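Why predict the complex rather than its parts? Because the way molecules touch one another can change local conformation, and only a joint prediction can capture that. The input here totals 989 residues.
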Amino acid sequence: MAVADYKKYLAENVLNERRTVTYRSLSRALRSHSTLAKQMLYDFHHSENAKKPHSVNAIYILTGTLKATKPATNGTGANGNDEDDIMPSSPYISSSMPNQDAAADQVPVSLVSLVREEDLEDAKTTFESISSIYVYSLQPTVLQDLNVLTDVGREMLVNHAQEDPLELGKQWGMIQNTNVKRRTGTRPPPPPPAPSSIVPAKRPAQSEPSQQQKKTETKEEERPEPPNPVQHQTSSLSSRSTEKAAPVKNEKGNLFSSFAKTKPKLKKEESSTPAASGAKSAEPSGPEDVVLDDASEDEAEELFPDSNKQASGETRESRKEREEKLKKMMEDDDDEDEEMLDAAETSQEPSTIDQPPPKQEDLKIEASVKGGRRRGRRQVMKKAVKKDSEGYLVTVEEPSWESFSEDEPAPPPAKRKPAVSAPKGKPRAKAGQGNIMSFFGKK
Amino acid sequence: MPVNPAEEEFLCSPSTQQYEPTTRSPSVYNPLDTFRLPPGQERHYQQQYGDMYFLRLAKLKPAVEAIAVEAWEGFTIAGEHARRVERVLDVRQGELCWVAGTIYMAMPLKPNVLEDLMKDASSDLCNFTSAPPPRRTYIDPSNPELTEIMLEDESGRLRLTGSKLRSVQLATGAIIAVLGTENANGDFEVVDIKVPDLARQPSRWERDEAPPSRDSKKGKIALVSGLGITGTSSENLALELLTDYLLGYTGSSPSRDGSLPDASGITRLIIAGNSLGASTIEEAPGLENGTTGKKLAQHKKYGYDASAYNASPIVQLDSFLAELLPSIPITLMPGESDPANFALPQQPIHRAMFPRARAYCSAPPAGDEKPEPGWFDSVTNPWEGDVEGWRLWGCSGQNVDDVLRYLDFADDDDGNIDTDGDAEARIRIMEAMLRWRCGVPTAPDTIWSYPFQTHDPFVMQTCPHIFFAGNQPRFKTAIIEGDSPLTLNGEDTEMGGIDENASAPTVRLVSIPKFQETGELILVDTETLEVEVVKFGAFAGREEKQ
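Output of the joint prediction:
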């Protein structure tokens, strides 16, 4: 406890940097008891003004009870004693309600009032009895607007966001509660099959949008900053979250790097941005969030399932490759990009833990492989515009078989590029003309 | 001015004294799920509201008839015997009789869905019906005679008249019994009125085990409402002082006379609605008209314009809660201006709104088992539950506000309603609700409500010990007592019976003021149910006067 340093701290902050220091911000900064902090403020105020009058201005808190007669000057005691009147017998419900024993009783009103140094004596006269007076804050000049003090409070919360109130509250003089229940990492998984296990798996698939989300979150958090408790838990997960920000990040990066190469990098960027204290304070809560996430948030994140950057592994390559070939067949140059997205997404799915049943595309592609001898048949999806029974035009994608033959076996990933460019270079390779393609291919 | 030793505690040089940590008294808490609606898929809105009136009447008719029998059996006027009539339509002209039914009040300024639809059809601007603008009163002051009071049951309606009605205040949805005769006009001349009166009151610690030997330390329940956080910095000074106080930073050693109520004795904070300021919801209607509407159209691509959403109020509420929660358990009720459904009963504000405070929530329910109430408990509005053994029944104030619109202000206050008369009227209304045994009588008539099918939760099965209404203009409290149990005969089987303790039910009524306007925190003693007020604010000194 740096009790001896308080003069230095106050001199730096109040006199040099001309900031407002409240007893709570002092108590947090020096990790001292709030009563002690009040005394420090008083002492500093006293000694500085003895050296040089009016160098430091104080704001006091007065607590006590108000005088029964309201002084006109007192804005805060507007209806301090209105509760004392005895209720007359009911004008509204009277005789229908037997036994009308409504009785008003004397209600004691205590007041907690914030008072400027100059008004202290005035304010004192409005109190009937004063139970305590203490210095709430010190600032170099008279505060025009007391609401500035809320900014000090907010700033304090930002600066000390990582400190766990459950651990440090005792030092600050906060009332302790032995029964407090805070959820730790091991919350029972909600009924639907383990969304928590989906979350980490899904993350890579969304790294871009979720990064943006993260960023906006941190932006928001720059402003108000509540205490952001670093969790101390007894669970197995706790070891991870009690480590400070950096190790946690690394671990996360490792976990996900197999899925998403971009992720760790982005993370680093984020932490180095001048989001500064806000972002940093948000960081340690990161792992917590993962653990504590509610089901609803998981859902929210699934709103951004498309992102093709980081689909990974060989499965992806080969799948893409097949998709490419399909594309070639179907010759849908325009919306190729969109389709690619889909491909990336579907290829992502096998890597998630509980996968949905494989899509139909799989089947038809399986069929395509069977052409071991350059020739064969495969199933492709074709778009057909039909008129349905009610006379509406409906575009249907339906599988149909077509024969093909090729020079090469399924090309390796490197071949992908040419495969893409091929259909572009050759105009009018219409779907359903696979046999013509095969004719060219044969040469 | 009395010189106080308090000055010596803080206005001195730093001491080397070690401070013993103070510990908050534990809170015994057992909320009821009376107002929780079935989850998503099982929540239907196709039902007719008529069922609610039917259920209410079925539930309360035996109770009110029991009282009426007690009072009116053998009642004679001019040799004529008062006869009991089963149904409203069975009333015969010129015959002295009594009958029970539901009050319905036809008032000219009451919102009328048919009128709304007509307006919408003619203006053709929107194809949905928005909430009607709130009115101060439903009574048309220029034509007070347009107000008709009727008694209805499943058979029909009977118009009530008589001077008796002027001395009694009624509201739609109340179940009463009336004694009188039908006159030549077909109206029922009321001679006397009976209400169900207070329901059975559970004894303290009925649902919980009383903790042993707690009498040494007195506890308090803190009630606050209308925090009105709008996210701007200018309003939160009182909130900050409130936080300081609840966390135990304010004030001095509790032993001294005249000092603040000891914060460590406060075992629970109940926030009765409107934690967020009204200005955040005023944005919504603005979107429908003119320029903002166009802007909305441009962003139609994603259907949601994130730039129109201001997160700071809820973020601040979250940080306020998260700061308090390490020290004090909180029960949070939604209110009119909070992000919850609008129709009563309002369902809990979802914990996803509170990224920090939700660490103190109970775990999401797994399967059918009933989860333990959380340290931070986001509950319904209205809400019913046991705190420190006492039964609490509270609402964020919509119920009182709405019944107040049925009252006739023109008579007594000359339109000047924000006086003692208003606060008085509000307490009277709260008393009337208890005696009607209906916490929200005007739902579903003039308060939006979920169409209950199988039960009417607004009927009070039991009488609470503390009955509070949030977001009232003024703090006011009163104690009411029911009849002594001797007069409650065993016929009232369904709603309870004779209390073994043989003491009349006593209820503490509290109307909680808006904190944002008054800076007042209400403390209810857990032993005596006495009420105290702690007021937070800044002294208006020379700077303000300039």
